[in-house]
Design brief:
heterodimer, A: about 400 residues, mainly beta, Porin, elongated, B: about 425 residues, alpha/beta, Rossmann fold, 16 helices, 14 strands, about 10% strand, globular
């Protein structure tokens, strides 16, 4: 009888594991990220495969484009009142984008290409012994999108494009389990590969040389983990209650609708703005379905209840001379997360982004681009109610990026 | 060269943008925490796992509170610490392996700590005082008025001075010059009766009795009057009901689980003369009751079987052919005595809080919510024995995490009463149950 009492652990669920929060990365093109992330209206280069596939047929050459960023967001947690605060460990990730696309022949109405990019990702590692370790210790979500794309110039005004998206990803999660032995907490380690499918549609309207519009819809992508592995490290006396097992899960990446306008008031100055709707409401909850529910390993279901968001992005591009151009911009990205459902594995807040950049074109076919993408949030006091975990967070980040394109 | 650029870029990333937010600074509000003194019994002393031991004392809820008070002007907090972790005067319990009494299979269970009781712990350490934590395991509210009590109780005998032993515990409390105090007294005024199976007097002065309400009231009133005489502020903590304690709730009254028809048939044959029938599945235990025919009857819903009957039920045949002895059960009438007394004492505590404008900590209500589960920073605590994480291996006292939950409930009440903003304790910084 006593034995049964001691070994009943139904209460210890592996709750509140998550992939990440507003884990959208707006770093798919160097010029665009230097202009606050805007770029739906104006097809600057082959990166329009991401920003607006409809613009691809507007390029008058075939282009190879590659770029990457050094991203190392600084995230701090503080308790509400007292003295406790902790910084998430520094961790550099390198979101990248590669594109090959355009027209083989300037007279052709068809454009085609391939994009490989990382539109969603999140990585945060807290100290193993931090206050929220039973909610999360670390999480890493990576995604890679492969997007073959075709584009057709209907006439001088309208061009359209469509891309098919095949997405792969990885997820790694560590969290402490509240069963202690003399050496400390138990731990759960989850890892898995995910994949999903989607599409990217775009229309580009060239009303005049001075005025252009763009409208795109990038579909939601359900990232499915079919055979993840869950490993548990617990006190020896409880090992039989925590059998390693496989798990299934899925994370809905949101559909995104963008409307952009670009104007060119003078020969050298271009201004552009995007209004972006993100369908985060699809991220209602996060569940883990463990294959083996014997003992203490219970399936989990964590509410997230994300809200849809509208983001605003603005940018300016000024051509100094044939070789050099400078860019600057800003964006306001409201968070889809709710104040009472913000988990420390998906820290987010309303973000203000300030950006700038420079392009250098040593020869007409080659362009070297650099950008700085600065993000800051206010101090956000929130809780994750399912875990009764309360505190304040702030995010700051300065991401430098570098890209090269070559036109054939 | 490339490395050089990367280094510059990294420097930019690392140095340029760092969050510098800080938590809000705690404020003391209307209370003065300069000298904090805690009054109480075993719970206040840091007793856990069936004994008093050093790390339990170091992580007592008053020590946690004192740690939080430091940020709002609190001073040093001195406790009559034992020399080591073995436990004194008995070894404390740890979770270990032991053979099941029936099947002999090795399973988890509370076993004595692997160590020796250090007899030097009996040496008087009053010279190390004055102590801020005046918690004495076993002490009742009514004992506070008893001159000479200090030398009768081995725990107070350790740290009371000769003069303090001669006086009543109340005298020591009143001389402590507290600017702020907590008082969690009264548990033992009902618990002694309850843990002895309700065999004592429902209104008496012996250890197995429930303290007479008038005596409780007189002592409690005098104590709080005295403590607040110089304007000290404080928090009064009330008495949790036994129904929130795994010592009484772990073994359900209908915990006689029959799995074979043969068992059912033979018990039915035995108890046919008393008109008691059994069925497959859970049945109410047979308990001793002097007022019942043949001195036995079936337990009823709402009656309690004490945790200490566990092994005898498993291996001694208690609860079926042999009735569970009265000293291991709380029958409906006894439960009513305990609950009435708890209510009466809690009313006296509430009156005192009201009268002296002190914070009232309704620990009774809080521990009732614990029966439903309280989640703290991702850990769910319940009143379940061992797996619940809040109660220690004796089933009555809390684990360090359980004490931390209690400390936070006290801080909440203090903040509310005195408009202070004292920070909460990081509950999971402390140990829960340690598994082998």
């Amino acid at each position: 009888m006593k034995k049964n009492v001691l070994l009943t652990f139904s209460a210890i669920a592996l709750s509140s594991m998550a992939f990440g929060g507003s884990f959208q990365l707006n770093l798919q093109g160097m010029r665009q990220s230097a202009m606050g992330g805007s770029g739906t209206a104006w097809p600057w280069d082959a990166s329009t495969i991401f920003y607006n596939p409809g613009g691809l047929a507007r390029l008058n050459s075939f282009q190879i484009y590659g770029g990457a960023y050094l991203l190392s967001p600084r995230v701090r947690f503080t308790e509400q009142t007292g003295s406790y605060f902790t910084d998430a460990e520094n961790h550099i990730s390198t979101p990248f984008a590669f594109y090959a696309g355009g027209k083989l022949n300037p007279e052709s109405r068809f454009g085609f290409g391939l994009g490989i990019y990382t539109p969603f990702g999140s990585s945060i590692k807290w100290d193993d012994d931090w206050m929220g370790r039973y909610v999360t210790q670390s999480i890493s979500l990576k995604s890679f999108f492969f997007q073959p794309t075709v584009s057709y110039e209907i006439n001088d005004v309208i061009s359209v494009g469509a891309g098919f998206i095949y997405a792969i990803g990885t997820v790694d999660i560590d969290k402490a389990i509240p069963v202690q032995d003399a050496s400390g907490d138990g731990q759960a380690k989850l890892s898995g590969n995910a994949q999903g499918f989607g599409y990217n549609l775009g229309v580009q309207v060239k009303a005049s040389e001075m005025l252009q519009f763009g409208l795109t819809y990038r579909s939601g992508v359900k990232m499915k983990v079919d055979d993840g592995s869950a490993n548990f490290f617990v006190p020896a006396s409880l090992a039989a209650n925590f059998n390693n097992t496989s798990f299934k899960s899925e994370l809905p990446l949101p559909g995104i609708l963008s409307f952009g306008v670009g104007v060119k008031p003078t020969r050298d100055l271009t201004l552009q703005a995007d209004l972006i709707f993100a369908g985060w409401r699809s991220y209602d909850s996060l569940s883990f379905d463990f294959a083996n529910n014997d003992g203490s390993v219970q399936d989990t279901h964590d509410p997230r209840s994300y809200k849809n968001t509208f983001a605003f992005r603005l940018g300016a591009h000024y051509k100094i001379c044939e070789e050099f151009a400078v860019m600057a911009g800003g964006a306001y990205d409201p968070t889809p997360t709710r104040d009472n459902l913000l988990s420390p594995d998906a820290v987010d807040a309303n973000r203000i982004n300030l950006t700038c950049g420079l392009t250098y074109q040593p020869i007409p076919k080659l362009t070297i681009m650099g950008a700085l993408y600065y993000t800051t949030t206010g101090k956000r006091e929130v809780s994750y109610d399912p875990a009764n975990f309360t505190g304040a967070y702030q995010i700051k980040s300065l991401a430098p990026g570098l890209a090269v394109s070559y036109s054939f | 060269m490339k490395k050089y650029y990367i280094a510059i870029a990294s420097l930019l990333v690392f140095a340029a943008c760092k969050s510098n937010i800080k938590p809000d600074k705690p404020e003391k509000g209307e209370a003065d925490f300069t000298r904090y003194v805690s009054l109480g019994n075993s719970l206040t002393a840091g007793f856990a796992d069936g004994s008093l031991y050093r790390s339990g004392q170091e992580n007592s809820y008053p020590a946690m509170l004192a740690g939080q008070f430091k940020a709002v002007g609190g001073g040093d907090f001195r406790q009559p610490l034992l020399l080591d972790d073995a436990g004194w005067p008995d070894l404390h319990l740890v979770l270990g392996y032991k053979p099941n009494c029936a099947t002999k299979a090795i399973g988890l269970g509370p076993v004595p700590y692997d160590g020796e009781v250090n007899s030097a712990n009996a040496n008087n350490i009053s010279s190390g005082g004055p102590y801020n934590n005046l918690g004495v395991p076993g002490i009742r509210c009514i004992d506070y008025a008893l001159p000479g009590y200090g030398s009768l109780n081995p725990y107070s005998n350790r740290f009371y001075s000769t003069a303090e032993k001669a006086g009543a515990p109340m005298a020591l409390a009143l001389s402590s010059q507290a600017t702020f105090f907590t008082c969690w007294l009264g548990n033992n005024d009902v618990l002694g009766y309850a843990t002895a199976g309700g065999e004592g007097n429902p209104s008496g002065l012996m250890l197995g009795d429930i303290s007479p309400v008038p005596a409780f009231k007189a002592t409690y009133d005098a104590l709080i009057n005295g403590m607040t005489a110089n304007g000290a502020k404080g928090a009064l903590i009330n008495i949790p009901d036994v129904s929130a304690t795994p010592f009484f709730t772990t073994i359900p009254a209908n915990g006689l689980v029959l799995t074979r028809q043969g068992q059912v048939d033979s018990l039915n044959a035995v108890y046919a003369p008393l008109g008691i029938t059994f069925k497959l599945g859970p049945n109410y235990f047979i308990i001793a009751d002097a007022t019942a025919p043949l001195g036995r009857r079936q337990a009823k819903a709402g009656e309690y079987i004490l945790l200490t009957a566990s092994d005898s039920i498993t291996c001694g045949g208690w609860g079926s052919r042999t009735p569970i002895p009265e000293a291991y059960t709380l029958t409906a009438g006894e439960v009513a005595n305990v609950q009435n007394a708890t209510e009466a004492f809690n009313e006296i505590i509430a009156e005192n809080a009201e009268k002296h404008n002190l914070a009232l900590v309704d620990m009774n209500a809080y521990l009732k919510t614990l029966t439903q589960g309280i989640t703290w920073n991702g850990v769910e605590f319940t009143t379940a024995f061992v797996s619940g994480g809040a109660f220690s291996l004796d089933g009555i006292h809390l684990t360090q995490r359980g004490y931390a939950l209690a400390a936070n409930e006290i801080i909440r009440a203090i903040n509310l009463k005195y408009k202070s903003t004292i920070g909460l304790v990081d509950v999971n910084k402390y140990n829960g149950i340690i598994f082998p």
